[in-house]
Design a protein that fits this description.
Elements lengths: L1 E6 L3 H9 L8 E7 L2 H8 L6 E5 L7 H11 L4 E6 L4 H9 L2 E6 L4 H49 L6 H8 L7 E12 L1 H4 L2 H16 L7 E3 L5 E7 L2 H13 L1 H12 L1 E8 L3 E2 L3 H13 L9 E4 L6 H4 L10 H6 L3 H11 L9 H22 L12 H4 L7 H22 L3 H15 L7 H7 L4 H12 L3 H17 L6 H7 L5 H12 L3 H6 L1
Parallel strand pairs: 1-2, 1-3, 3-4, 4-5
Antiparallel strand pairs: 6-8, 6-9, 6-10, 7-8, 9-11
Helix pairs in contact: 2-3, 8-10, 10-15, 14-17, 15-17, 18-20, 21-23
Length: about 525
């Protein structure tokens, strides 16, 4: 099914072309008229267009300028020019922008029909060719990670020397570092709900290792036969390699917290304070693995096991963040104003004076939320964070609470701005609009059917797209937002649970309590007392 856009400042001519020709014979099911180039671009920003049939001389933006804009933004859209002037310059410029036909007005309906048919034939041929090329590329991309994993196993575990072609597959054309060391991460346990989808969450763990422990350095990361995750630290000199190991140990607590909350697993980290030339990396591997397998009787020396001390006050007090629900909800909805307001609340001075360590935990919470949100959307921190990326891995660089707060605000704004721009596609736009409506009417009964009607889409389509984009159904998201709002309200003095249930549109306090306990693991009354 195809769509046609007719652009002509002579409205009668445009309507005649659009409605007097049987375009359905060409499988064109949508035909729209606009009357200048600016209107055409505005329409194409909202709807898919396959063929544009346009006059050249028009007020505001002429056909040549329109063709230039379309060629820059919509690679496969076919352009057909109509003009009452037979000028060579127009024809020459038309060729530059990939215009498929050049018709003199007034053109007969048969000429217009044939010109559009040729444009669609060319479009189908190009799409077929692109699909075939994409299929071949996709097959290679699917095979590439498996081949890289196998090569890494043979190099590190078996000690096989790699040839130039294999090295280029692993590292590209960049030179391999002269010195190497290893990090070994062992997954000790999974939470039950995550264990059922272990393969999926292993991918999440890998992403966290790359972004937090390795600071997005291009170090090889792979698994051995036992399921251990291994990172090969490779640098030009030993000091750089030792610095990378130190970075990983410094970020261990944040990584472990992120792995627990995002992937539901506990891990141990083993590393060696020793670097060898890269051709001896397999010797380091076996030394490290033997110590890891015997870590219960491990002695101090080359190998150190890193585990967070559960009695440590800063790690225990992560629970304090439960007093400030809402930030994650606003980030998920790409609600800039709500997220920034929540940061102001998180950094507010407590009545008892508080300590700087509390604000470090706030930083952990915000950094972990952004890392997790990026991971769910399948994007890396480096894609959007720019100069702010260092703040995810090196909180020692902040010298005051004001700097810490400023970074949290900036990284939140930049992440949301990037996502909003990236989501300018139909599905992302639809889901974000749905989320905004839900947040605006969180105190009312919201049905999927009413939401879909307001967004001018089918309810089943909205449900399907929403689940694909978020991993949740619309109903689950509505309940999630209502409970997050309830947690905020329950922190306000004097509020009654039955009043709050009514405020959020629940049919009864009992119904609200069941939903609240299911999502938080405790009753609303217990939560209010905590």
């Amino acid at each position: 099914m195809y769509s046609l856009l007719v652009v002509d400042d002579e409205k009668d001519v445009a309507k005649s072309i659009a409605y007097d020709i049987n375009w359905e014979e060409l499988d064109i099911t949508e035909v729209q008229c606009v009357y200048n180039g600016l209107e055409a671009l505005e329409y194409m920003n909202k709807r898919r267009v396959d063929v544009v049939l346009t006059d050249i001389r028009m007020p505001g933006m002429d056909g040549i300028r329109l063709a230039e804009k379309i060629a820059d933004r919509w690679k496969y859209v076919k352009m057909i020019f109509m003009t009452g002037y037979e000028e060579f310059e127009y024809a020459r410029q038309a060729l530059r922008y990939g215009v498929t036909e050049y018709l003199l007005k007034p053109a007969a309906n048969e000429e217009l029909f044939d010109a559009v048919k040729k444009g669609l034939d060319k479009l189908r041929a190009e799409l077929k060719q692109a699909a075939e090329k994409e299929s071949v590329q996709a097959q290679w991309e699917r095979a590439r990670p498996l081949l890289k994993e196998k090569l890494l196993q043979q190099w590190v575990i078996k000690g096989r020397e790699l040839n130039g072609e294999e090295g280029e597959l692993l590292w590209g054309k960049e030179q391999l570092g002269k010195f190497a060391s290893l990090l070994l991460l062992r997954i000790d346990s999974w939470d039950t709900i995550y264990k059922k989808q272990e393969l999926k969450y292993r991918v999440v763990v890998r992403k966290l290792i790359s972004e937090i422990l390795l600071k997005n350095r291009a170090y090889p990361l792979f698994e051995n036969a036992d399921g251990d995750l291994l990172a090969v630290i490779m640098e030009e000199d030993q000091d750089q390699a030792f610095a990378a190991i130190q970075d990983a140990t410094n970020m261990w607590e944040l990584f472990l917290y992120s792995a627990r909350t995002t992937a539901g697993c506990n891990l141990s980290l083993f590393y060696i304070w020793e670097c060898e030339k890269t051709e001896k990396v397999h010797e380091l591997y076996w030394l490290l693995k033997r110590h890891a397998d015997q870590h219960l009787s491990m002695e101090e020396g080359e190998l150190e096991e890193i585990r967070p001390d559960i009695s440590n006050q800063s790690f225990q007090s992560i629970g304090i963040l439960e007093e400030y629900p809402g930030y994650e909800m606003y980030v998920d909805a790409l609600d800039r104003k709500g997220a920034l307001q929540k940061i102001e609340e998180l950094f507010a001075e407590p009545e008892n004076g508080g300590k700087d360590s509390r604000f470090l935990l706030v930083y952990y919470h915000i950094a972990q939320t952004i890392l997790r949100a990026s991971g769910i959307r399948g994007i890396s921190i480096g894609q959007w964070s720019g100069d702010l990326s260092e703040g995810f891995y090196n909180y020692a660089g902040f010298h005051s609470i004001e700097q810490l707060k400023a970074w949290c605000r900036q990284v939140t704004e930049k992440y949301i701005e990037w996502c909003v721009n990236e989501n300018d596609r139909e599905c992302g736009y639809l889901v974000n609009q749905a989320k905004k409506i839900i947040l605006e009417r969180i105190d009312k009964n919201i049905s999927v059917a009413a939401l879909a009607e307001e967004l001018y889409v089918n309810a089943s389509h909205l449900t399907r797209v929403f689940r694909k984009e978020t991993g949740r159904s619309v109903i689950q998201y509505i309940q999630y937002c209502k409970i997050e709002r309830a947690r905020e309200l329950l922190r306000q003095p004097g509020i009654k649970i039955y009043q709050m249930a009514q405020m959020l549109g629940y049919e009864s306090p009992a119904h609200f309590n069941r939903i609240f306990q299911r999502q938080t693991g405790m009753t609303a009354k217990d939560y209010q007392k905590s």
